[in-house]
Amino acid sequence: MKALIYFVVIVGLVPIQSILLPHISVWGVKPDLGFVAVSLIGLIAGELDGLLVGLALGWAMSLFSAQDLISGVVLKGTVGFMAGLAGRQVVYLSPVVLVVGLLVVSCMAGVITPFALKLSAQQDWWWAVRTVVLPQACLDAVIGGLIYWLMWSRLNIEQLMSESRM
Fold it and tell me: Nearest 5 degrees, angle CA 28-CA 151-CA 143?
């Protein structure tokens, strides 16, 4: 059943991210739903599920976007694995703690891109952080927090986390 849910998430998020979200932007950036999904799957289901879904989702999303294949796969796989490790260590995860965690992790993941790109003189590293990385991290954190809050208020997340990790 979990494999079917993960397949639906991967197959559903790729067209939404590559077709619908380029036309919807907030603060000049679009949310990375793959990052949010991989983080939530890693937190709830564990590090192995987060890693595998992150690798598959990173591969599928990089095929349909201008993102480098290796960086998309490695970045999303690492985020899923690290979220799974964090989920094992946290006893009670409130939506506020999740939002702060997603904000920090999204900032760290977003900072990798300006280092990998050769920016022009007008677009230095601080410009990229101020105009792209921070708004993207804020947007990802809010969306992830809202999704987790909906799941937290409708489902018994602690029971779901303990059952999926056995």
Answer: 5
